[in-house]
Every structure is written in structure tokens, then in C-alpha cells.
Amino acid sequence: MDVAVIGGTGAEGFGLAMRLAAAGHHVTIGSRDAGRGAESAAEASALGGVTLRGTDNATAAAGAGTGGVVAVTVPFAGQAEIYRSIKDAVAPGAVILDATSPLATAVGGRPWQALRPWHGSAAEQAQAILGDGPRVVAGLHTIAAEALRALDREVDSDVLLCADDPEAKTRVGTLIDGIPGMRWVDCGRLEMARVAEPLTALLVSVNRTYKVKDSGFRIVGRDAWGRRP
Amino acid sequence: MDVAVIGGTGAEGFGLAMRLAAAGHHVTIGSRDAGRGAESAAEASALGGVTLRGTDNATAAAGAGTGGVVAVTVPFAGQAEIYRSIKDAVAPGAVILDATSPLATAVGGRPWQALRPWHGSAAEQAQAILGDGPRVVAGLHTIAAEALRALDREVDSDVLLCADDPEAKTRVGTLIDGIPGMRWVDCGRLEMARVAEPLTALLVSVNRTYKVKDSGFRIVGRDAWGRRP
After folding, report:
1. A61 Cα to chain B: minimum distance (Å)
2. Which candidate, B61, B69, B108, places its Cα nearest to that of B88?
3. What residue spans of chain B are helical by DSSP H?
């Protein structure tokens, strides 16, 4: 699958790009600066023993087309601007994976504090900026960058996905399931991101207390775990 | 330990009362009506093969004293009124376990939708009503009543606890750790309940999608799991 990772030079996006490239996908790292995108791609390729490409955000987003996934892994402070900058490049009907957590760090607060975006969640803000064509899926808020970067270990965590479009959610879920140890969970409509996004803050709090870096969630209690019925 | 379960006639409270009695604690079920509290206690005693007492909410709350725990497991719609009704009975310095999830059902909405309480969280509202003496611990939002009721099975779930007072949090955590399969996680200050409480809505959404009744969370990623450092 063609996957663009917008903000792929950051820790979370870089780890995701490496994991998806290792799973056999055609991954392009996007950056505000095409040169930095290319540098990050070269670094990820060397580290992972696979080939990634790198370019500017808009070119990367366009390259995913309608059949791929555009993953957006940027800080909340820059999220709206980034979406406006790729809006015209995103294919109609494209699938967007938004991983934004509205942490209070965006306004000088602490990473264990969360903001309430005007639209309800950062993912709903993304959908509002992109308009009706692209289909936004919210996810990855509870996956630590450190866990993604450690390619020699499985990622022991579930990925909570929220989206209005079932096909888009399943497409992103398929990507997730291809990463060793990860499993996607259908958490309902896009608006459920209002609950899922602040979980990053909760995990930051747990990490601080227990002096770890990669706490995460598993959903339990499902006797017969599998795909959605 | 002396434990009062306010709202112990409801599904969540009833299950918690049975689990704690089975673990050897002196449990009193509180209800608005002393007779109904006694009936519930008799039912729980028969089902669990242990002895629980039952009475009205204020008497139950007073009985926990300063060394016990007052667990409050009531719907959000009645939470403020319940706290006002037990306020004068709660011992100064008492430890309160508030399990309230501010679900939209309180105002005729859906159980996979959450409200934002004026104080930030339902637990902070409880603290505001009780004043500075009692120490509120928020927790149990992610534990299904069905899982608590099934005494023949371990509860496969972590309990996310949020509180400002470390001793109160540890006391409740000790109660939790005494229930087979359960484990408490220190999620930080009481205000983190703003993130933890709406998780009930997320689990309701997961339960609906997968047609299960008892999904829950485990925290993963801690190589050396244990008590707080």
C-alpha cells in the first residue's frame, strides 16, 4: 500500500514509517522541507534495511492517492496549519490516519494535560479542514514513539481506531495488524476520538510515575477476539 | 477493612461489594432506603457465601470511619445529590472511592457519549461537594459490572486510580489488588479523572461493536511491573 507519513521526521512518525516500510508498504516521509524529508527517509532506510522515500508534505500526501493512507503525526500546535497545507494535494476519497493528541504542551502546558479542541477532537478538526471528501480515521494516540522505534521488539499494544467510514477504518486497521504485536480495535465513530486522544496524557502520567517510556493499552474481556462481527 | 458501598444496590456496586466481601473485608451496602440496602446485602451474602450488612447511605458512609473506604457507585445523574446526602456522615479524613462516569445517559443521551462536568470530572465534583477533609480517589470506571458479578472468574482488567493524596490512593489500590485478577495503576492526580472517566463510554462503544459485555483495559509496556517506585 502507498503510505505517506506527514510529519514523518518526528519521533512518532519516524517510528511508524519504519514499521510500515518493514511490513512491505511503499512509505514516503513528508516534511515541511523536502530536503529534510529525504534525509529522514535515508536515515530510516539505513536503520531499517528497507527503502523509504522522502519529500515535502503536499507531494507525499498526493502520492498516497485514493487507495493508500495519509498518516498525519504532528504536534497539535501545528496540526491545523499542516492540514491546510496538504488539503489541495489530498485525493478525494483519500484515507487519513490522524494521530494528533491535543496535549496542553501546544500552549505551554504539561504533556499530562489535554486541551479540548473546538470541534470536539483534533481528528474532527482535521475532518473539518479537509471537508467531506477525505475520510479521517483517528488512531495511534496510545502508541509510544519509543515502542515504534524499537524494531527488534514487538509493539505490545492495541490501537484504538475511531472513524465514521467503515472501509477507511478497516483499511487503516489492516495496516496496523501488519505490524508485529499490534492489533486494531474498532472504537466507534470519529467523535469517540474525544475520549481516545486524551489517553496520551494519561499514559504520560503513568510513564512519569513508574519511570517508564512506553506504557500502552490492551483491550481485554473479549473471549473470542477477532475482527468485528 | 471497613468498606461502605454507596449505591451498592446497583449492578456495579453490588458486584464490587461481593468481591470485597469475598476478599475478607467488612462490607456494608448503602442505599437511599435502609430496607433495600439490607435486602441487597442479604442477596449478596447468599450469592457469595459471605456476610455483608446493608443500611441507608449515610449510616453506611459513617461506618467506614477514617480507616476504611467509602466507595460511591451511582449514576452521574444522582451523584451530586448522593454526596450532599452523605457529606455530614463522612468522617474527616475519610477515603472516598468515586466510580462515577459522566455518561450522557444522565441527560437522555447515549452511554457511548460523555458529558464534561463543570468541575472537570465527576470525581472533582465529589471533592468540591465534600470539601477539603475527605480524600477522593477516582477509579473503577473501566471495570464492567458483569466482570465484577462473575465471582467464578478473575477480573481481567487494570484499575486506573487518580487522586491527589498518595496514602488514600494506596489504600484503595490495596483493596483493588486483593480482588483476583485486578491490579491498580497510579494514573496521577485527581484531575486525571477527566481522562479516565470517559473511558466507560469508549468501552461501551467497543462492547456494542464486538457484541460483548465486559471489555476492559490493561496497561502494558512496563518491563518491570510492580508497585510505584
Report:
1. 30
2. B61
3. 11-22, 34-48, 57-63, 76-86, 122-130, 145-149, 166-177, 193-196, 199-210
CA distance B128 to A173: 42
Helix residue spans in chain A (DSSP H):
11-22, 34-48, 57-63, 76-86, 122-130, 145-149, 166-177, 193-196, 199-210
Q: Do B220 and A156 touch (CB under 8 A)?
A: yes
Q: Which chain A residues have a beta carbon less than 8 Å from that of B210? A: 186, 222, 228-229
Residues on chain A touching B144 (C-beta within 8 angstroms) = 221
Give the model confidence (pLDDT) of B151-206 as tens digits: 999 998 999 999 999 999 999 999 999 999 999 999 999 999 999 999 999 999 99
Longest CA–CA span in chain A (Å) reads 49
**Considering only alpha carbons, which residue of chain B is nearest residue A116?**
B116
Give pLDDT tens digits for B28-79: 999 999 999 999 999 999 998 999 999 999 999 999 999 999 999 999 999 9
Whether A187 contacts chain B with CB within 8 A: yes
Instruction: Based on DSSP, count helices (H) and strands (E) in chain A, helices before strands.
Output: 9, 9
Cα dihedral across residues B87, B88, B92, B95: positive or negative: negative
Grid cell 483499511 is found at A171
Query: Are the CB atoms for A60 and A6 separated by under 8 Å?
Result: yes
In this predicted model, what pLDDT tens digit does every residue of A104-119 receive, in sequence order? 999 999 999 999 999 9
The rounded distance, in Å, linking the Cα atoms of B175 and B19 is: 10
Contact between A223 and B212 using a beta-carbon 8 Å cutoff: yes
Give pLDDT tens digits for A4-27: 999 999 999 999 999 999 999 999
Distance, C-alpha A87 to centroid of its chain: 17
SS (HEC) of B7-43? CCCCHHHHHHHHHHHHCCCEEEEEECCHHHHHHHHHH
